[in-house]
Amino acid sequence: MKPAIVTALLLAAALPTQAAPSAEDQIRFRKAAYSFISWNMGRIKEQVADGASYDPQQVQAAANAIAGVAGSGLGALFGPGTEQSVGAQKTRARPELFSNLPDVARLGQDFNKAAALLAEEAASGDKARVKAAFGQLGRSCKGCHDKYRGD
Amino acid sequence: MKPAIVTALLLAAALPTQAAPSAEDQIRFRKAAYSFISWNMGRIKEQVADGASYDPQQVQAAANAIAGVAGSGLGALFGPGTEQSVGAQKTRARPELFSNLPDVARLGQDFNKAAALLAEEAASGDKARVKAAFGQLGRSCKGCHDKYRGD
Question: Residue B2: is it exposed, middle or buried by C-beta count within 10 angstroms (0-12/13-18/19+)?
Fold first, then answer.
């Protein structure tokens, strides 16, 4: 199959069979997800800094949280009607995101994989490996933000 | 040891060794955590309803997300200065929460355990067992809300 078809299928597989929350709630929940991830990224960033004392338990807790959120099926929170701010919920998602869903699904899969790898490395307690996986996850975040997140 | 001492030690163990986010950010991140959990609780609630078709993958994704967030060390987001709303961040936490931290830590541990059990049952794919664990987790949420969450 062509890559575009594969990603379209992946996206379809990620779609929920359930009643979706309202567009406003979808934006609220996805913002909550990324906000919560940012706290945990910050915690790990401090831990892997050169010279910082490394607390494997803290890193593991933060990495597991990120992996859990990343693997939760966030694609379901980018449904129709969420292309722009709704009610009290402002979104920074660019319109381009919604016209490139197969690309977004691919980036989402990369993000999910990078988060799972970070959780795996965190369980090993090896600071150097965690630092490498953390860098990879950060690049995955940035890859999507640069393309699809506005100011 | 007396239970109060044990819970105080558990709380101390849950405290971060890292630089804490600002009080406003702590409130922002903890609200994000509970908001994101609420989405995932809603997803599982739909799945375990009588007569609903059960999608084990959806339930597992949602349960893993809840367990990851619950186990992330949320106690670190209830630091000094977060007893009331700060800047744009409104909090519904009651003042009683901050004068009963050992009790809150105990409820937090129960919540964490119930979330871990739900993730375990979700991995089994057994709807009845998931439903029981989901009910237990819901009661754990309510136990804390009734005591420490305002309107």
Answer: exposed
